[in-house]
Amino acid sequence: MNFKVLFEKYKNNTASEEERKIVEEEIEKLKVLNEYMDESFDLDYEIDIKTNIDQNNKGELYKIRKSVKRRNRIIILSSVSIVLIIMVVFHSVIAPMLNKLYYNPDQKTYSMTNDLSIILDSHVGLHYPNGSLVTVLANNTGIGKYSITISKNNTFEGKTEYYYGDINKGKLDIESAFWRRGAIVNFFVNATYPPYYMREDEMENVIKRLENAPPYTLIEAYISFEELLSMNELAEIMNVHKNIHWIGIRNSGEYKQVYPLIGISNKGGFIYEELNELYPHFNTALIASKDQITGDILEQNFRSSLQFQINHSATLETLSSNFPTKAYYENTLVYINENGIKTYGVVVQGTPDTILELTQLDGISGIRISNSKFYLPYYN
């Protein structure tokens, strides 16, 4: 948009706030330049008298003065117009082209939302036992620069958490609290090497705490199995006990451990039907809503989630070194192909009585309470 059109919009009071600001800044510049030129060419009558110039010459000087001022105004107006044209071209043409050289968090491959929201939602499902429903809002603040807000539902607290940061030329800088929501390493018995064994008296103490807890207590707990369970074995448990939110999956051999811990989310979330066609049972929301969970559904979900992260790992690795690498997910995929998809434990959320029911199952080797709070029950 050239300055003439911009100025007409200004006169007609149809210019936007940003356009009004541009015009008024240029008008202010013009006033300052005019004052300067007037001072520089102030051929007034005092000079005429002092130099004994006759009346006819005074008239000629007055004409010259007017001519010079007119010429200067034309020069200034032309300069301002050129500057405005350059600014408009830069913001409307050049800046968008330069922005394309860097990662855009608003880019969309799928119709439902921006890619980064889905990628981070998948990341949270794999690694955060009490996180779901991730969305990313981005605002372009400069070439390759975006201010972002990441929102994430905390399933235990029942509220939305917000994390604020920036993406500058493809690099993510976000609040450190965002990274501190992963599965707690030493709360499972066999999730790590060496194991964090739980003594029998420790188990009894936790069970007593659950037995004595008020009924209106919501508890999050890590429950460990003595032996690794297959997804078919776990599905049988899940179809009876509905409060399992996250399933820890073994991703390395018995005598080593690869971090971070990784698992299957059963917390619900957004439904990405378009993605389910490309990645079978990708949606954790569909898993959580099934009346009957099967081992095949759980396995397909985990494989799809791994493959999705592998296919989008370049984005995560570019954004931050805090995200797991492509090699991490590829090695996990190799491991489960060779050894099967098996779990060492689950994260549950529920009232004390529902968690006590799980502790009565055969083959429980540990239970550690990670969080608790009082809540108001709902009445129909």
Strand pairing plus helix content: what structural class? alpha+beta
Envelope shape: elongated
Order of strands side by side in the largest beta sheet?
7-6-8-5-9
Number of domains: 3
Radius of gyration: 34 Å
The biggest beta sheet reads:
5 strands, antiparallel
Elements, N to C (H/E): HHHHHEEEEHEHEEHHHHHEHE
| Distance linking N and C termini | 62 Å
Organism: Natranaerovirga pectinivora
InterPro entries: Sigma_reg_C_dom
Pfam family, one: Sigma_reg_C
Protein name: Sigma factor regulator
Short account of what is shown:
This protein has 380 residues and is α+β, with helices and mostly antiparallel strands. Helix content is 46%, strand content 21%.
Question: What do you see in this structure?
Answer:
The chain is of the alpha+beta class. The chain is elongated and about 110 Å long.
Q: Key terms for this structure?
A:
380 residues
Fold topology:
Layout: H1 3-11, H2 17-40, H3 45-50, H4 55-99, H5 115-127, E1 131-142, E2 145-154, E3 159-168, E4 171-174, H6 200-212, E5 217-230, H7 231-238, E6 244-249, E7 262-265, H8 273-278, H9 284-289, H10 295-311, H11 313-319, H12 326-339, E8 342-350, H13 352-359, E9 364-374
Antiparallel strand pairs: 1-2, 2-3, 3-4, 5-8, 5-9, 6-7, 6-8
Helix pairs in contact: 2-4, 5-10, 7-10, 10-12
